[in-house]
């Protein structure tokens, strides 16, 4: 499903005559099977988010190969990446990144509008998904009227509505208390088991990493699988 080989990336900062190089990914390899939950743990600044951005095509790594569903994405144009992302990935972030002026329902509906799905079909799909993930009661609420856990459910709903095979989650429970964290982890587990969705989860937290089938550790840009 995801096959990453020999991916390296160095950020260059400062002016040309005084350029500083920050190596962030070094010869990274990662193979994720369909239906797996994989956790990437590691200290702040170790390169976890950079790897996720590289997989999603928000950032172009200097070298290496990234194959997703059999397609090499390293040399995609921006347009190709954008189209590929919409079909293949859902994103979940620590700070939810919901649109404050849209209701829970409208936030989840948004990716379908971007995909050009007709209004009737959109409403049906959003309603069905909101029932599945326990959000019907808050459909008309705005993000600032929701608890952290509810906001993260909405953001998971938004990531799922286009039926992507892969969800990339960057610290999905990072802003939640431990009880709400457990709820969200249970939801991730259910979605993986019921729908076979593949998850790559970045986390600092061992509790979160425990839901994963396999765990990798990033240390100074080097990724290693842990036993
Ligand atoms: N756009 C950028 N330009 C220059 N350096 C960057 C850029 N983005 C990240 N870095 C640097 O790359 C390194 C890795 O950052 P990254 O965000 O991938 O780490 P992380 O493991 O995800 O950390 P955190 O858990 O704090 O998000 C850090 O030293 C960071 O300062």
UniProtKB/TrEMBL annotation:
Keywords: ATP-binding, Nucleotide-binding, Transport. GO terms for molecular function: ATP binding; ATP hydrolysis activity; transmembrane transporter activity. InterPro entries: AAA+_ATPase, ABC_transporter-like_ATP-bd, ABC_transporter-like_CS, ABC_transpr_LolD-like, MacB-like_ATP-bd, P-loop_NTPase. Coiled coil: none annotated. Residues 2-227 form the ABC transporter domain. Pfam families: ABC_tran. PROSITE patterns: ABC_TRANSPORTER_1, ABC_TRANSPORTER_2. Gene3D superfamilies: P-loop containing nucleotide triphosphate hydrolases. GO terms for cellular component: membrane protein complex; plasma membrane. Belongs to the ABC transporter superfamily. This is ABC transporter ATP-binding protein YtrE.
């Amino acid at each position: 499903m995801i096959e990453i080989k020999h991916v390296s990336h160095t950020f260059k900062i400062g002016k040309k005559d005084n350029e500083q190089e920050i190596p962030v990914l070094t010869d990274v390899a990662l193979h994720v099977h369909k239906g797996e939950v994989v956790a990437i743990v590691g200290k702040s600044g170790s390169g976890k988010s950079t790897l996720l951005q590289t997989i999603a095509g928000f950032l172009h790594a200097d070298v290496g190969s990234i194959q997703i569903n059999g397609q090499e994405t390293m040399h995609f144009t921006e347009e190709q990446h954008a189209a590929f992302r919409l079909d293949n990935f859902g994103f979940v972030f620590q700070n939810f990144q919901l649109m404050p002026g849209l209701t829970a329902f409208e936030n989840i509906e948004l990716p379908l509008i971007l995909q050009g799905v007709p209004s009737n079909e959109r409403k049906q799909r959003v309603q069905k998904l909101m029932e599945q993930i326990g959000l019907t009661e808050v459909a008309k609420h705005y993000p600032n009227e929701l608890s952290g856990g509810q906001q993260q459910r909405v953001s998971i709903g938004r990531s799922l509505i286009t039926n992507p095979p892969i969800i990339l989650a960057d610290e999905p429970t990072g802003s939640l208390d431990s009880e709400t964290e457990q709820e969200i982890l249970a939801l991730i587990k259910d979605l993986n088991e019921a729908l076979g969705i593949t998850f790559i989860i970045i986390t600092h937290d061992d509790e979160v990493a425990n839901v994963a089938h396999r765990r990798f550790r990033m240390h100074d840009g080097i990724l290693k699988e842990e036993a």
